[in-house]
Amino acid sequence: MSSLRPARKNAKPAPVPYVSTTNACKLCTPLGACLAFRGVEGAIPFLHGSQGCATYMRRYIISHFREPMDIASSSLGEKHAIYGGGPNLKQGLLNVLCKYNPQLITVATTCLTETIGDDVPRFVKEFQQEYAARGDATPLPPIVMVSSPSYQGTHMEGFHRAVRALVDQLAQAPASTAAVNLLPGLVSPADIRYLKEILGDFGLAGIILPDISETLDGPQEATYSKIPAGGTPLAQIAAMGGSQATIECGATLKGQDTAGQLLADRFGVKLFRIGLAIGLRETDLLFSLLEMLSGRETPRSHALERGRLLDAMVDGHKYVFGKRAVVYGEEDLVVGLTAFLAEIGVRPVLCASGGNTGRLKAAIAAVTADLLPEFPEVRGGVDFHDIAEEAQNLAPDLLIGHSKGYHLAKRWQIPLIRVGFPIHDRFGGQRLLHLGYRGAQQLLDRIINAILAKKQADSPIGYGYL
Amino acid sequence: MSEVLDTNNPETLTPPPEVVKEELLAKYPTKVARKRAKQIVINEVGPDCTVPEIMANVRTIPGIITQRGCTYAGCKGVVLGPTRDIVNITHGPIGCGFYSWLTRRNQTRPAGPDDFNFMTYCFSTDMQEEQIIFGGEKKLRQAIQEAYDLFKPKAIAVFATCPVGLIGDDIHAVCREMKEKLGINIFAFSCEGYKGVSQSAGHHIANNGIFTHVVGLDDSVNGGRFRINLLGEYNIGGDAFEIERLFEECGLNLVATFSGNSTIDQFANSHTADLNLIMCHRSINYVAEMMETKFGIPWIKVNFIGAEATAKSLRKIAAYFDDPELSARVEEVIAREMPAVEAVRAEVHERCAGKKAMLFVGGSRAHHYQELFREMGMETIAAGYEFAHRDDYEGRRVLPNIKVDADSRNIEELHVEPDPQRFTPRITPEDLARLAMGDLTFKDYEGMMPTMANGSLVVDDISQYETEKLIELYRPDIICAGIKEKYVIQKSGVPMKQLHSYDYSGPYAGFQGAINFYQEIDRMVNSKVWKFLKAPWQEHPELTAHYVWE
Questions:
Q1: d(CA A226, CA A211)
Q2: I need a labelling partner for A317 at 20 to 30 A (CA). Which of A134, A193, B468, B496 fits?
Q3: Would A401 be classed as within a structural domain?
Q4: Which of A98, A124, A152 is the last residue before a domain boundary?
Q5: Alpha carbon A122 to chain centroid distance?
Q6: Is A143 domain-assigned?
Q7: Among all residues of B, which ones are annotated catalytic?
Q8: CB-based burial label for B152 (10 Å; 0-12, 13-18, 19+)
């Protein structure tokens, strides 16, 4: 393997259709479900399966967010794998109830319990009946269930299924309100805080689901609370059916049976689907929507941020123009990032994802059509081995994605701009801003500075004035 | 214990262990409390080092948020993970492989640019629904072929995840077939996550697999007079590098490490060593026992965590080989290393003495690291393992009394006999007896509890809830555990050191490691950050105006 950046070649090799996965560019389905469930107030995520699943996912989520992440487990053993996990699930629910006194327990399945065919809804129903028969003083909180076998889809499917399950099982017959449901997708706590600020500035009552802004990025306080403060309140989820509209973010969600679709079908809540608001035009879409829903103009502070972003784009164009980028990660994130890169003059040459919805290419075409002279390679369902093979001939100048692309950056000696999840070789992943004018501004600064830093490092002279 | 307590300051008073235990159990349902009561023990060391019985290596109660991992984690993640030149393929959906992808901070040092290093890779069959329904053997076969085509490695290992056992894939048959076809060593581990009660089952399965498929394949004796294996050292944060340095300076010949900074060739040749040293008794004693039975290599327990413990372990090795030259060199190394250690130790001792530590980690680390704290003058008030067995707590003397439950019976116990050609006792029974009279005990591990103070609390498989409760009751100065506990503990205002992966730090083994650890702990327990928890206006509202004016 060459340690240097590959030269650009014209001939494209026929991609080898590997059957196995080498260095995956996706995580597993129940992890996504747990992440979404962590964004509900007072909730304890619960995995029905072997205890190792909870342990592995906790350690992975924790290493990104650097925050506590409790996930309970039904801890199935060999015996339960044969005779079924019902008794363990019930015992586990009871223990979580006693020790955490949660407002909500959210049960996600794993490949173990899906393979043996455990009927979780039946077990939970039985548990609720048995609990009622005990006549305990503590009322039983709601239990939301989602099917999330890791052999179906990626963590993003798990995430969206969990959000849908929350709405499906908790939203009630509505009293109409002026609120706006905002389903942001998997973005950072900093992104969610910023979305709240934007909604507030438009004078809109927003219901953001899930809301990990505090639960996965909480303050240091004098005392520790077992369940972190924050998250979408249950009452708000219940009220989502009465909101005036839902904004659902995710360019590859179009046509899918999502939470937003469910709210539209069941309660008639008007659904607006946009991509993740990354870059200028995708953010413009969000702000136009908010103008329409609030009946107000974009507040001056945000208009100013937009203006400063444009100003920076003009100033920074000379540094980034024509640079060739490989973008990877979750499909919706890749779409947003690609849109943004096209806007600032970077040439996305490869857009790749471990996700495999089949909708990535169309989504990228939709956001870049009028900006790119040459359409990038788009690959869904790939791993880093595929990405490396593909990018080998594309002469990339930079990589944009999560920490797992580090080895390619090292091999090719090009900068990696870390975004998304997981980030475990840098500090502050939970505070990275991707969305909106402000997020675009920060991304732009980081990309330009990475290019400048490389230029400086590569120079044998050491010019200090660039 | 009480000599370090400042009785004038109620904040440093430690509540009696009986009270603490009662508090820990108070909120549990009766049945759970009854079980946990046997896993939470107040230590009391009897005259001949007997300690109270503790319940360990039993199933975790569902819904108790445990820190334990699974069988796959113990097998692939812990034991086989640190070997750089085996292609490890996880057979299953993507999660398990992804989460064990270099997360333990095992380090390795390839001999040169042509030496394989697959540790930065994550190979998986990435099972999809189709394989769950129609079986995954075909995909596994293809994955092995692809790995072979790509890298031409010396060996490929396959690790089963939960669904594999359930759908009945015969991974061992696939590996046999591919081994024959490709002509390299290919073997599988049935380490499905649901087996056993914790990662400990996975260690055992890994031990069996390496012993069956690798150990003894290469009989060449590669020189050296003092040939040793180091077992149960995983080179977290570079520990093995420091130990290797000391071995080299002492003139000891390391044949194989299981498995920090290791290669498969080392395993294949390891049966030619003359002494096995066990670091982590829990994860690796099986291989040592089997190597003794089959090849006649005795084993001793060592500990390179702590400067004194390191010196003691080196002296034990010298005593075994009974060679004046070696002994002199070992003493020389110790004499050369200790002054630097002592200088830092004395400095941090001033600031750290009397402070209280709790350790809930591993299957040996909770024991080993007490050495380092002791050297700093710090006291371990509570400790426990995540996945250890009774012998790790109470010492191997209790082995005959341990009841084998259904979970342990599930894990195969290999039947091993002396190898007709290759069994050579390394030491005469007379010498063995003579050495045993001295400081050297063979085939023995005293366990953690006999080395702990009376009245200290020992908690097996501690839960998140119990950790929180202990913090509240004991207010320790530092807790050592893993990443899952880290932020809960820090949010409770207590510094926390990860002893699974050492955070970003290490090594902590040997003499240089001891210095690193002293400095790190000193920095943590004397940090001023906790003083800023309350903003000035919260602390002294009356001063606010003044504050602003100034």
A1: 18
A2: A193
A3: yes
A4: A152
A5: 30
A6: yes
A7: 70, 73, 104, 203
A8: exposed
Chain B residues closer than 8 Å to A71 by CB: 65
| Cis before B507 (ω within 30) | yes
- Could you say which of A152, A183, A199 is where a domain stops? A152
Q: Which residue in A432, A392, A428 sits closest to A412, CA to CA?
A: A392
Whole-number Cα distances in Å, A358 to A355, A361, A363 = 9, 7, 10
**Record: contact B29-A110, CB cut-off 8 A:** no
Return the amino acid letter for B76. Answer: K
List helix spans (H) across A234-299.
234-239, 259-267, 280-294
Domain ranges of chain B: 71-196
For the question of an ipTM over 0.90, the answer is: yes
B50 contacts A68 by C-beta, under 8 angstroms: no
Cβ distance B428 to B213 under 8 Å? no
What is the tally of structural domains in chain A? 2
Residue A447: CATH number of its domain: 3.40.50.1980
Measured in Å, how far apart are chain A's first and last C-alpha atoms? Answer: 33
- pLDDT tens digits, one per residue of B11-51: 556 799 999 999 999 988 899 999 999 999 999 999 999 99
The reply to whether omega before A422 is within 30° of 0 (cis) is yes
What is the rounded distance in angstroms from the CA atom of residue A437 to the CA atom of residue B204?
Answer: 55
B195 contacts A78? CB cut-off 8 A: yes
Structure token digits, residue B211: 């012993």
Q: Which residue of B has its CA nearest to A29?
A: B95
Contact B471, B489 (CB under 8 A): yes
Token representation of residue A160: 């969206």
Return the beta strands (E) in B395-507 as ranges: 457-459, 478-481, 496-498
Q: Which of B98, B133, B489 to substitute to test the interface with A, most A CBs within 10 Å?
A: B98
DSSP alpha helix (H) spans, B421-475: 429-437, 464-474
Question: Which tens digits make up the pLDDT trace of A96-135?
Answer: 998 899 999 999 999 999 999 999 999 999 999 999 999 8
Instruction: Assess if residue A44 is contained within a domain.
Output: yes
Residue A398 belongs to some domain of the structure: yes
Q: Which of residues 165-194 of B touch A (CB under 8 A)?
A: 165-167, 193-194
Determine the residue type at A325.
A
In Å, how far is B463's CA from the nearest CA of chain A? 11
Rounded Cα gap, residues A440 and B410, in angstroms: 55
Domain of A437 in residue numbering reads as 308-458
3-state secondary structure of A247: strand
Which of these, B522, B147, B530, lies nearest to B344 by C-alpha position? B522
The Cα B474–Cα B482 span in angstroms is 19
pLDDT value at A179 more than 60: yes
Q: Which residues face A145 on adjacent strands?
A: A107
Q: Which of A51, A90, A124, A423 would best serve as a mutation to test chain B binding (most B beta carbons within 10 A)?
A: A51
Helix (H, G, I), strand (E, B) or coil at B535: coil
Whether chain A has a CB inside 8 Å of the CB on B57: the answer is no
What is the rounded distance in angstroms from the CA atom of residue A250 to the CA atom of residue A366?
Answer: 13
Pairing of strands B379-384, B356-360: parallel
Closest listed residue to residue B387, CA positions, set B18, B75, B22, B28:
B75
Residue B151 in contact with partner chain A when CB distance is under 8 A: no
- According to CATH, the superfamily of the domain at B71-196 is Nitrogenase molybdenum iron protein domain (3.40.50.1980)
- Phi first, then psi: what are they for A383, rounded to 5°? -115, 180
